Amino acid sequence: MQRKKCENRIILIISAFFILFTLLAVDYYALAVKQDYVRAAQKNAELTINAGESQGTVYDRNMRPLVNTKSIYKAAVVPSAVNEQETATYAVDKDDFHRKFSEGKPFVFECSEDTPESDGLTVFQLPVRYSDGQTACHVTGYLSDGRGADGIEYAYDGILRNQNGENSVTYIMDGFGHVMIGDGKKVVRSDAVKGGVVTTLDEDIQRICEDCGKGIKKGAIVAADIKNGDILGMVSFPQYRIDELDKAVSDEDCPLINRCLYSYSVGSIFKLVTAAEAIEEGFGGMMYDCSGMTDIGGQIFNCHKSDGHGLQDMKTAMTNSCNTYFISLAKCLDVRKYRELAYNIGFGRENQLCSGMIGSAGVLPTVGNLQIQAELANFSFGQGKLTATPLQITQLACAIANGGEMPVLRLIKGLTVDGEFTADEKPPRISRVMTEETAAELRKMMVSAVWDNRNSNARSRSISVGAKTSTAQTGRFDSKGEELCNAWITGFFPSGEPRYAVTVLIEDGGYGNDAAAPIFRKIAEAINKKDKEKTKK
């Protein structure tokens, strides 16, 4: 009996030790796990929810955005910290919201502007890069895989997409991976949208050029400030939608091409250069009797008026756009000086607007070419080898309208970090290419070409203009065997105190007076109306 009691006592003691050991082991394990939690917490595990990236803005000359013109709102939400039904009322896509919410993980959804914030709900205003009715698409360019692929987007990719574009909220997480609401959150709201590139474009004038040129199948319009060469409007046709690039790529009219940068046969507009050199050399008073044709070294050159214009001076010849007058005039000129004037005005030289956006140099015949009589004859009225871009033709108009001082056209005004002030702005590059007296004579001729020609479609009742048209032969023919011609007009307004130069090109458009002049007139009238409205304000 005594022995049995002894055995029971031993069993109890052993059991007690076992239980104690077990409890100690459990406590040790719990403590070890707890220490893991402590270590996890000590590491400050974080969860960052990215709501989207902001990119720099392309502005017009008055700091009006040409991209990022609209905004959307997005919210980063922690499901465990908000009421599902209440929050869903602010979601743009409610079905998608409920689906993501049911997964229990933090997510981002598009919401309305009036969405209220809380510890578990953070709202961000994000710019929309492009929008319906996007203006200046050939200037701003577009993106590919998030990087600039064309236009200013390409040229200033590193500035428009810098390292400060993140919009995010960061939470502290516990050892189980749960967001610790109440421990605060770190919100990053990017102001990258304020910085960017400031162009010389005027949004109002840009849209006027786009609207007035809507009927152009293929062509270009350039509008510029004659004093400093700032490009105020720059449009290529056909235009394209940035959200339909695949469609643009397959379009046989090649809308992705910026035709403002391409060179074309020039035609009669170049008679202004011929007249300028003749005046400079003292032949401004030359008289000529046009019979409708002239023989140059055995090659017959016809005037567009088959029975001739008769006796005329330079002013009348410019109004009549008489080819044979200017052929005869060119024979009197010093070929080297003549070509040098054309070069100084910008023919044969590129217009570098920014990286990847360079106007073609075109073709300017050599002195050797021009020593051939037939080549010189063609050159005198803008035919033969000569080609030029709408940019170069606009520079010519600027030089004439600005008293012989020609500004080099520019598109980039500078950079901005705050959307208010422009930095790194470079002064205009201006050079004298003809005397003030010569420029004044040319202005009179251009005004006369509109006002003394009752058939001129550039004439307006609301504003006085000076202009010169071209119907430039291309050497290409349509299916009916008729030659395709480029329709041009370049000019300035108001004629008394010029401020603007505008060039319109319609590729294969036919007669300049029929196709290009009406568009020029509409642009001049619309800009004049806009200026008057601004003056009233």
How would you sum up this structure, described in words?
The chain has 2 domains: 153 residues, Alpha-Beta Complex (Penicillin-binding protein 2a (Domain 2)), CATH 3.90.1310; 334 residues, DD-peptidase/beta-lactamase superfamily (Beta-lactamase, 3-Layer(aba) Sandwich), CATH 3.40.710. It is built from 17 helices and 26 strands. The longest helix has 41 residues. The protein starts with a helix and ends with a helix. About 3% of the residues have low confidence.
Residue share in helix: 25-40%
CATH topology name of the largest domain, in short, is Beta-lactamase
- Beta-strand percentage range: 15-25%
The CATH class name of the largest domain reads: Alpha Beta
Strand segment tally: 26
The separation of the N and C termini measures 119 Å
Q: Based on helices, strands and strand pairing, what is the structural class?
A: alpha+beta
Name the shape in a single word. elongated
Oligomer description: single chain
Layout of helices and strands, plus pairs?
Elements: H1 2-42, E1 46-53, E2 57-59, E3 70-77, H2 84-88, H3 94-102, E4 107-111, E5 121-128, H4 137-140, E6 143-144, E7 147-148, H5 151-155, H6 157-160, E8 166-172, E9 185-188, E10 196-199, H7 203-212, E11 219-225, E12 231-237, H8 245-250, E13 264-265, H9 271-280, E14 288-290, E15 293-296, E16 299-302, E17 310-312, H10 314-320, H11 323-330, H12 335-345, E18 351-354, E19 357-359, H13 367-370, H14 373-380, E20 387-388, H15 390-401, E21 405-407, E22 412-416, E23 430-432, H16 436-451, E24 466-477, E25 483-493, E26 500-506, H17 512-536
Parallel strand pairs: 2-10
Antiparallel strand pairs: 1-8, 3-4, 3-5, 6-7, 8-9, 10-22, 11-12, 11-26, 13-20, 14-17, 15-16, 18-19, 21-23, 24-25, 25-26
Helix pairs in contact: 7-17, 9-12, 9-16, 10-16, 11-14
